[in-house]
Amino acid sequence: MNFIVFFALIGVVSCFPSLFDADLDPHWKEFKQTFGKSYSKDEEFKRRIIWENKIKWIVKHNLQADLGFHSYHMGINKYSDLTYEEFTRTMMGYRSGNLSESIASHWLPLSNIQIPDTVDWRAQDYVTPIKDQESCGSCWAFSTTGSLEGQHKKKTGYLVSLSEQNLVDCVTENDGCGGGWMDTAFQYIKNNNGIDTEASYPYKGIDDTCHFNPANVGATCTGYVDVGPDESSLQQAVATIGPISVAIETNDRFINYKGGIFDDPTCGGSLLDHAVLIVGYGTEGGQDYWLVKNSWGVSWGLGGYVKMSRNKSNQCGIASKASYPLV
């Protein structure tokens, strides 16, 4: 009986290669080399299956996009060997806090003002290069530093990269890699009389002990303003203030976004789970979009950016929790 079981197992194992598409072998090798992937034998089997299924799904979507059924394309990135559940457990870190609304100033809609049709704050050097939160739900920290970097540049003329790790380690009202809220981080920076520079307090992507150093402060914050929750107010704020912190709802299609305007009616906005930074807006092919900086590295999206639908009934909830710091 033991011999029968043994040879049966050999038969099953020998069938494993047939589960893979041999034509994808060189692409799988290139994927691992490009993103520095290394697996045990059992783990590689699991990751290859996930990756191949994602390839087929992406190819089908992109064929439909080429025929005009979608306004965006999807593509492979360094997360393409993860399931949606695995990705969301570590990367989605927006958590709305319990700060009293009276702490924040509130945006007052502007009247009799002409705002431009297109804005891109990168052209004004208000935006630091794309960063990578890695396997840590610290998106809230990157959204916070992004908007403060822009406001600091606007006030002083200097673009200074600020420390997300300072926020992950020291904002006790948030939960570090477990998630957080931008308003809470702004309040911390105000109470703390500043935030350290990226150079002095580099990112580790883990929860660590707080070692903020007042001698290394790169920017300060005197308060913050909550905007919205409508897209008209958000557009005014982006046009007249600078980059704005926002929270959005994501889904598996967003995670695999590669280019075009991300227009997905299933992205409703009732379950905000990710924090990003709006750095501009515009119109392309007759379709309005928000220009959004993400924190998933340059292999994701348009070199780390995404164009998201604008004036589509607040798709993905992009205007629901917008804010920016005062400096």
TrEMBL record:
Domain Peptidase C1A papain C-terminal residues, every copy: 115-326
Molecular function (Gene Ontology), one example: cysteine-type peptidase activity
Stored SMART domains: Inhibitor_I29, Pept_C1
BP GO annotations: proteolysis
Entries under InterPro entries matching the protein: Papain-like_cys_pep_sf, Pept_asp_AS, Pept_cys_AS, Pept_his_AS, Peptidase_C1A, Peptidase_C1A_C, Peptidase_C1A_papain-like, Prot_inhib_I29
Domain Cathepsin propeptide inhibitor: 28-87
Alphabetical keyword list: Disulfide bond, Hydrolase, Protease, Signal, Thiol protease, Zymogen
Similarity-based family: Belongs to the peptidase C1 family.
Protein name: Cathepsin L
Species this chain originates from: Caerostris darwini
